[in-house]
Structures are given as structure tokens and as C-alpha cells.
Amino acid sequence: MADTVWNTDTGEAVYRSRDPVRNLRLRVHLQRITSSNFLHYQPAAQDGKDLIDLATFRPHATASGHRPDEDEEEELVIGWQEKLFSQFEVDLYQNEAACQSPLDQQYRQDILKLEDSGRRKNRRIFTYTDCDRFTNLEEHCRKMTTAREVPSFLVERMAHVRRRRQDRRGMEGGILKSRIVNWEPSEDFIKSHHVINTPLQTMYIMADLGPCGKLGYKHYEHVLCTLKVDSNGVITVKPDFTGLKGPYRIETEGEKQELWKYTIDNVSSLAQPEEEEREQRVFKDLYGRHKEYLSSLVGTDFEMTDPGALRLFVNGEVVSAKGYEYDNLYVHFFVELPTTNWSSPAAQQLSGITQTCATKSLGMDKVAYFSYPFSFEASFLHEDESAEALPKWPVLYCEVLSLDFWQRYRVEGYGAAVLPATPGSHTLTVSTWRPLELGTVAELRRFFIGGSLELEDLSYVRVPGTFKGERLSRFGLRTETTGSVTFRLHCLQQSRAFMESSALRRRMRSVLDRLGGFSQQSSIHNVLEAFRRARRRMQEARESLPEAGPREPLGDHGLL
């Protein structure tokens, strides 16, 4: 017995079960570890040694008919909310004057029946169920220290907000019938429902550790295990089941400090194969009905796009802005759809303004984090099937401004970027610039008054959609590079061409491929055209010069 490995982990453990909690069974074994108890476990005799058999000194039975060794060891199998009376309750409820409630009267009848039949199976181990007075007192007067604590006003008020017996709902996975949302709560409803109120049932497994012949005193009662079960099937056990770990120990106080050990094991019977199969059928039927119910709410018609159309969904976020001169930044942004073949719903908002955000130093830069979400939807309908018709893609424009203490704003930069043509997650960093006015007076006016040059049309940052000419000249416009804005975009594309295998699919795929390479193709096309014009002018200039000897022919020199 001296080599016993004690289990010192008395914390609670949480389990979850779909089975009814009424099937829970626990085996509790309690044993006293004292000097007199050691005598019973010493060997009677050993080979080659003359030892006295200590079992001959075993005490005789007492007048009550119980042997002392029966009071020193006890083992019981206890079910959920099974009531086992203590010796204190047996003595108390035999007095009819002590029964003040219907529950007390019921306990009195049960105790009298047990005394008459002599079928009481417990002596030291007993239980307090969810209905007992001990459960209320334990939850209300729980002390955190050994000092004499006085419950505060908050503790007394919270004691009335009970989490255990709400409307006596079933605790075996029943559906809550109360309304989840109360749109017009009263003052009393707010006072009584301002905390998380999950229905909870509690059970205590106790032990009377009094000396032999002195059972029934409250100060000898000790809690062996606390069980709590809520309506979601969550079972909380404190301390945890013993299992393969060592037993728990209890040391009593007083003149005779005695040592007790006890174990708690889960001995619930396993379900039979027939019961498991029947349960699986029930769950399958339940899930099938729930699926049908959800389908009836959603509907069976999936919204499809028109033939030859592409629908674009963008869930975006203005992440941050950095590298700007002044503090308290905000971003004004909008999406420009090409004038041909693109459209959006009438109620669709294609612009937005973030909140004003103070910057923080990150390395050498000042960064403002917005985390401003936005979303929009647009549709592309391909009508022109000629090879020369190059489709265009939507463009995201942004304007960064700063705000000072006097509510004066300054333009910090303009920028634009073509939206990604491929679905998925993308991170765009848009570099910005602002118009620059030379002179000290302009900078002083920008600092003190807040005025600065602005663009009347933000699409002038790029090629405006309304521009019809061949060349867009910005000669004479002085600008200054400022900072950058980071966008995070999650793009989703929907089209019938993704699932059809007809000529429409091949035609639409070619359009999508052209859309995906639009920005690259347009850039390469502009570079090639500029190079051809420059080479043609150089050839004309050389031909107009007088001959001054042989000249090398003008070639491409591997440029293309």
C-alpha cells in the first residue's frame, strides 16, 4: 500500500455524447487507508518464518450488525440522478416534522420503505441530485478561500439567474422551443437573460468519512465527484474518471487524520449492434428530413447566366496605405466598367470611401491599416465576334486624401489598376502620384490651408473611357510620386461556357483567354506600334540626307 501512485490531477474533464444521459453508469470504490486497515492486508504467514496470522485479530461485528471492515471499504454502481440517501438524511427525514416540502415528503416515504425492506445498499457513499437543497447551496455559497466569505450583492443577484432548471426542459437533446431572437424584449426579460443561460443539470457523488459508529454528521461529508450535463450533450466530470491512472486521495481533518482513497470509473453499458443500427437509421432519416427542409428554403433553381455572358463577382478589401506625407488618411475608390459589353445591376454600388485612419510607424514608412471591405458584381456579354474586337476589363481607381485637425483635406495621390482577369485571390499594390505645383507658395498653401491641385476626372489617371482620340497627351503636367495602396481581391467568375462542350464553349473560352491577356496584349501592341513609327521616321530622314558614303542598312538588331 505504501507504493500506491496517487492521482493528483483533480481538474475537470469535458465529454460529449449523443446517447441519452440516463444510460450513464459510474462505479465508485471507496477505501480507508489507516494502520488498522494495513493489518488486513499483511500476509498471514511466509515460508520459513514464524509469523502470527493477523487475520485472527479481526474485530467482531458491532451491535448494529455491520462489521468495521465493511465501513472501511465500499463499492457502488450509480446511475445518472440516482438518489442514494446519506445517514444524515435517513435520520432527518424519519422525523415527519422536518419534512417541509413535497420533495421532503417523497424522500420520507422512500426512506421508510428502504428501512422496512432492509434493501439499503449504501452506507458511506451517497448522492445529491439536481433537485436537492445541497445543489443550490453549493452553487450559491461556493467559496474560493478558507476564510469566512460573505456573498456580495452581485453573487446574491446572480444566484437567482439559475442555469440548471429552466422550464424543466428535457436534457436529452430535445429541441428548444423558445424563440431565439426577441425583437421587443421587456425590462424584466433583459434583466433575466443578459447572461449565457444554457440549461444545466448537476449531480454530486458524496462520501461520509466519519469514524465507525459516528456516521451522519455534516462536517464529515466530502464531495467525491461532480457531474454536470447540459442540453447539448456535454458532460463535465470533476475529477476525471480514474481509468488507468492511480486513485484519488482524501485526508480528513481533526484529531484522527485519516487517509482515504477512491476511484471513479465509467461502466456504462455499450450499445448492442441492433441498437446502433436502429440509431443510425433514425439519424439518417432525421438528416434526410433536415436536408429536404433546407432545400425547400433555398430552392432547386440555380441562377444561371445568359448564353455567351460572363458574370464577375469581386469581394475586396482596402488593406492599407503607406508612404504618404501627412497623417489621418482615407481612400476614395471606384470601379469603372468599360462602356461596351459590360453592365452591372441597377442597385449596385461601384464606389466607396474608407474611414479616416491614423498612421503608425513600420520601419521607415508610415502605414495606415483600413481593412475596409467592399463587393460588387458585373456582367460581360460578348457580342462582337470579330478578331479585331479586343474586349476590355474593369479598372479600379483610387484617390488617397488626408484630413487635419481643422477638417481640411489634401490630395495625397491618385492610382489605378486593372482588375485581375483570372479567378482566385489576388493582392494588388497600386502606386500613386499627385499633381505638383512648383513654388514655395504652393507648398505653404498646401500645408496651412490644405488646398492643392486636384483632378476633375479621376479616370484621367489612366486612359479615360470617354476618350475617343488616338493619343492622350499629358505634356506639361507635373506630378510627384507619393505612396501606395494595397488591395486584396477575391474574384469569382460564372459562365455557362465553363460547363458546356459546344462551339459556344470554345468561342467563350477564346474570349476569356483574350480577356486574361488583355493588359499584356495592349502593352505589347503599343510598344510595337511606337517602334515601327520611329523606325519609319528614321528611314525617311536618312533617305533625305545627301549621300556621304556607304551606310549600313537599318535592321531590327534582334529587338523583336
From TrEMBL:
Protein name as catalogued: Meckel syndrome type 1 protein
Pfam families: B9-C2
Cellular compartment(s): Cytoplasm, Cytoskeleton, Cilium basal body
Stretches the record annotates as Disordered: 539-560
InterPro entries the record matches: C2_B9-type_dom
Keywords of the record: Cell projection, Cilium biogenesis/degradation, Cytoplasm, Cytoskeleton
Major location (coarse): cytoplasm
Keyword Cytoplasm found: yes
Domain of life from the UniProt record: Eukaryota
